[in-house]
Amino acid sequence: DTAVSQTPKYLVTQMGNDKSIKCEQNLGHDTMYWYKQDSKKFLKIMFSYNNKELIINETVPNRFSPKSPDKAHLNLHINSLELGDSAVYFCASSQVSQNTDTQYFGPGTRLTVL
Amino acid sequence: RKEVEQDPGPFNVPEGATVAFNCTYSNSASQSFFWYRQDCRKEPKLLMSVYSSGNEDGRFTAQLNRASQYISLLIRDSKLSDSATYLCVVNTPYNYGQNFVFGPGTRLSVLP
Predict the structure, then answer these.
(1) A40 falls in which pLDDT band (50, 70, 90)?
(2) What is the rounded average pLDDT for all residues in chain B?
(3) CB-based burial label for A6 (10 Å; 0-12, 13-18, 19+)
(4) Are A68 and A47 in contact (CB under 8 A)?
(5) Chain A contacts to B (CB-CB under 8 A)
(6) Mutation for testing the A interface, residue in B5, B39, B87, B100 having most A CBs under 10 Å
(7) Cα–Cα distance between B16 and B63 in angstroms, integer?
(8) How do B97-102 and A73-78 pair as beta strands?
(9) Do B58 and B107 form a contact (C-beta atoms < 8 A)?
(10) pLDDT band at A55 (very low <50, low <70, confident <90, very high)
(11) Which of A72, B15, B16, B44 has the most CB atoms at less than 10 Å from its CB?
């Protein structure tokens, strides 16, 4: 059973398009995250959702909007895609508690904007 | 200063070598610390949590020095399969959640 799953695994699209990436976790965690890993391999947090509330929103363009229909899902919608959005996007989840705050990552979505 | 900094690497070592990675963090309110491993074109996976007293898991030993805000990872008897990028991760409480900050990673290549 996959703990954190993402779809699609690969996404190739033209500049200006709108696309979504889906993420689901079956671990019962209450916090989910989106990370961007660019060509330099630096992993940077984009969003964090805890109990359906946004609690971290780094300096991310408002073209990116996270949507969480329920605790097990955190989808990422991107409007007006730009060349610089090409990267690998990872979803992750964790449980907010003292002893078990390990993050579990999805397999990643490789986005290429042409 | 970046929140989490690591040895720039890459480290190229022969099989059987002992290799140590260093990491420093800037936020003294950070409460938990981890080493993750990321293979090429794969997601990061937890290698081990880092506890104040230091901890060991087989060939891997992690140390934490809160006073110096320094974390280390020691790998003994390196295997070819240890080749990967090692990410230092620091968790700082933020409002009602957590803020996991990843270091830039240190790449390790274990050579036959």
Answers:
(1) confident
(2) 92
(3) buried
(4) no
(5) 31, 33, 35, 41-45, 48, 50, 53, 55-56, 90, 92, 94, 96, 101-108
(6) B100
(7) 21
(8) unpaired
(9) no
(10) confident
(11) B44
B95/A103 Cβ within 8 A = no
User: What gap in Å lies between CA A10 and CA A113, rounded to an integer?
Assistant: 11
Contacts of B85 in chain A (CB under 8 A): 41
Query: What per-residue string of b and e applies to B62-71 under the rule 16 or more CB within 10 Å gives b?
Result: bbbeeeebeb
Average of pLDDT values for B81-110?
Answer: 88
Sheet-wide strand order for B55-57: B4-6, B19-25, B70-75, B60-65, B55-57
Kindly state the tokens that stand for B104.
């830039």
Mean pLDDT, chain A, as a whole number?
89
Tell me the one-letter amino acid at B74. Answer: L
Q: Are strands B11-14 and B4-6 parallel, antiparallel or unpaired?
A: unpaired
Confidence of residue A1 (pLDDT cuts 50, 70, 90): low
| DSSP single-letter state for residue B42 | S
CB B13 within 8 A of CB B82: no
Please name which of B45, B48, B41 lies closest in space to residue B23, comparing C-alpha atoms.
B48
Report the alpha-carbon distance of residue B92 to residue A52 in Å, rounded: 20
Contact across the interface for B97 and A56, Cβ inside 8 Å: yes
- Average pLDDT rounded to a whole number, residues B7-33: 93
Q: Please list every residue in chain A whose beta carbon sits closer than 8 Å to the beta carbon of residue B96.
A: 50, 53, 55, 96
Give the residue from A9, A49, A40 showing the smallest Cα distance to B43. Answer: A9
